[in-house]
Records
---
Amino acid sequence: MMIQFLFHAMPLRALVMGVLIGIALPLYAVSAAEPTAVVEEASGGASKLTVFELLEPGQKYRLSSDEMIVIGYLRSCQREEITGGVVTIGESKSTVTGGRVSRGYVECDGGKMDLSLELAGKSAVTVFRSKPGKTDPNLPSLTIFGASPVILLARPVKEITFARLDKPELKLRVPVSGLNVDLTKTDDALSPGGVYGLVAGDRRVIFKVDPFSKPGAGPLVQRLIKF
């Protein structure tokens, strides 16, 4: 009833403007889309962008001539080094106006690093037995291509745990401060070719480390897990 009253009481000009705004909303809502890229490096201030920051299609950033950013695209596995200009984030690559951009592709598990993880509440070392005809729950959902993964957390936890599932190996427990963990900062690394369960709070995912992975820093999209 209140909505009807407001509708009838609204001046025609305001009503027309409201309709126009409503039509424009989908264009603005692009910035509320799922992230498609992540900041890997930022120098010279880079419009206050920070490493590990997730970027959404339609977002624009103006870089001065001495500002540089490196962006990794989560689905296309494209990596861009951009200096100066206006940068518009896209689905698989950026549009750069008035600046310089260098592009290349890296090996990554595009589209799978963004996981809606199962609420497990179980230890990562638990071996689950699947019923006949059912998918083995211990199959990896994701492959990373670096032995020192980066974990981006959706909510704070005190600790994350890595437990190898395919071979006996000591669990790796890593204390957390903030919403990201980079194993290059803790001097830890996982075993190339290993299958691991990762637990953070009540969330769990199983992933594989590519057999040719190396420890240490490398392109972020190769070793990223959004958790």
---
Amino acid sequence: MLLGQTANEAALPNGRPLDGVRILALESMQALPYATQLLARLGADVVKVEPPGAGDQGRGSTPAMTDPEGRKVGATFLRNNLNKRSICVDLKHPRGKQLVLDLAARFDVVAENSKAGTMARLGLGYEDIAAVHPGVIYVSVSGFGNTVETPYRAWPAFAPVVEAMSGIYELKRVGDQPPLVAPVGALGDISAALFATVGILAALRQRDRTGQGQYLDVAMLDAVVAMTDIVTNFWSMGLPSGTVAPLIMHGFRAGDGWFVIQVGREHQFARLVDLIGHPEWVDDERFATREGWLDHLETVLRPAIESWAGSRTRLEVCDLLGAAGIAAGPCFVDAEVAVDPHVAARNMLVEVPRADGVAQPVLVPGNPVKLSGVAEGPETRVPWLGEHTDEVLRTELALTADDIASLRADGVVA
């Protein structure tokens, strides 16, 4: 899907479910920006507040492109900031803090993802914002939360930190090898962003009923503990870290690469062994229990599965497995995902033209939330650093050109 295109155009007259909702986002990197981008895709007006100079830390990530001013715009920023406006305000300057307080009164949601306690120290915490806007939905996303004292509250955190602390790295670590860090991208960021999105929508709905705002506090570690539920759940049921659950959930080799199967029930096992030409194994005592499947996986099952699959492609194998009621999927590489027909049909990649003359567009994940009564797109590109500072200050606070020039001269805005 190209930037600026629209899918499900017939639904355009319906508008979007969050039309009229306004979000002031004091955000950086991904744990909050992914959430506000999703809300913007659903119609919210998101004004992003960045520090003068480097801006959002995500702009400094790699790989990167350059903007029309020759400044770096990193991949993390490009993935998480479509459909937003950017203003540059120095929150540490007294006049900058006052600008944010003045702006906050005009927004439904004020959201931040600094280290716990940072906004309160700047005079921009929940109590400060609620004093000028009692109905505000104030959102904090941090590594370990703001509202409860924990041993880790003061720690900075990125996604791999909370992923490690959830126990999932140890669950999947092999022997004495070091843990595989960030095996699925930024799970710690995206999970926190999704729970923040749910919380924001719930808080807005409650305010519709009660007229009251509230504080939404999301800890990244909480989010990952919820996403990696098997760690503590399995432990509580006698299956500690390092113990393999008794099911076939492994990768196997086909003629052109790897595919994954999940078989966890006896009827699925029966269908699998029948498909690969060994229906007699259903009554074989070696496979009478699920533990037996794993005991003989490498010596018996894997050779048979891979012998059957070796003359077929991954897609052919998975088609046959799927037709037999066995869940399976090919292991794609990046270039295959980029041109996958399912991904294209579902508009799950947005092509963002580069601003530095490189022909290959930047691919950004699309919106996974498909609503039949809501058009998808058109998306607008990420904002350049501080691109909308003057516009927002003029329209929201009625500041004059001289007022803005004074703020800029003092380094308050950029």
---
Amino acid sequence: MILGIDVSTYLEQQRLTHQVYRKDGKIIDPFEIFKSQGVTHIRTRIWNNPHNEKGEDYLGGTCDLDNFINLYRHLKKYDFKYLVDFHYSDFWTDPSKQFMPKAWKDLTFEELLDAVYLFTRDSLKRIKDEGVDVTHVQIGNEITHGMLWPHGELRYKEERRPSFRKLSALLKSGINGVKEVYPNAEIIIHLEQSYDQACYDEFIYELRENGVQFDIMGSSYYPFWHHGFDEYFANQDMIKNKYHLKTMTCEVGYPFTLKDYHLKNDDKAKHLVINEDNLKDFIHYLPSPISKAGQASFMKEFLALARKHGLDAVYYWEPLWVPGEGICWASEDAQKYQNLKVKDSRNEWANQCMFDYDGEANPILDEYK
């Protein structure tokens, strides 16, 4: 089973805070530890143009192609392999937002198909020129409701959703771009709602009906949103047994505290994604206590089940994204791009790192092996 990490924000973290990581009080190189414990792959997202009209960064890692190349150069000595995660947007994508890149917003559907193909092909050509060992490419990120809205949006609750035809055409354009440059790279389709067998069953069936050729069904698994181990792994078993696809956990994470963090310029505590106030309102499942020991226990059990059920890969999402001055998930202009007016801008995911707010390793680091 492949063990990987998504550290797409790492270079921005270092640029803004020069973050130091410690274990038992001693300064460490976290990548040396990851490598020694069997991590072989890095997953890195690519956004089209995460900058405003003045060229200022959208933050959240500002994950353009340059960030990917620079991260590869920074980590080259560790000899990792890579999973390229194309979002096909200028910023974050997930089931609630799949915004068209600014440069593509006025394209016709036929023009958009060409743009997806060319962006995928040309990005991967530059990556290949660097000598990157790309073994997997993800076409879209958490595309449960489609991507590149409105063209590739899936109309939810429809019987036999006809919009799969357009989504499938977009996916095939991206896949064609991959195969021209990395013909042996495995193609991943990535959804969330990872407890919902009916959702995955419909999705895979429709993509196959529309001629989409892919190798791996990827999923996100955050148990507080995506229910229990039994439901998650039953879905993975269905995918393998019914469709004979490989299965991959593209993202997994678990909190180690519900307490917020404070920065020097904070005027008040602001909410983390998982916090004391919202825990009772929408959390579906907590397999372990929310504590440092509980985070480690969750990961130990999850990896054991992943091996038992034959998952082909597991990636921990942003284990190094420690909070700090200037570290945030979105600039003001990035929020405008996504039509968000009241969202807090700072790092809401900080309590799910493998390191605490001071950069000290949590026990989960020893279990990720």
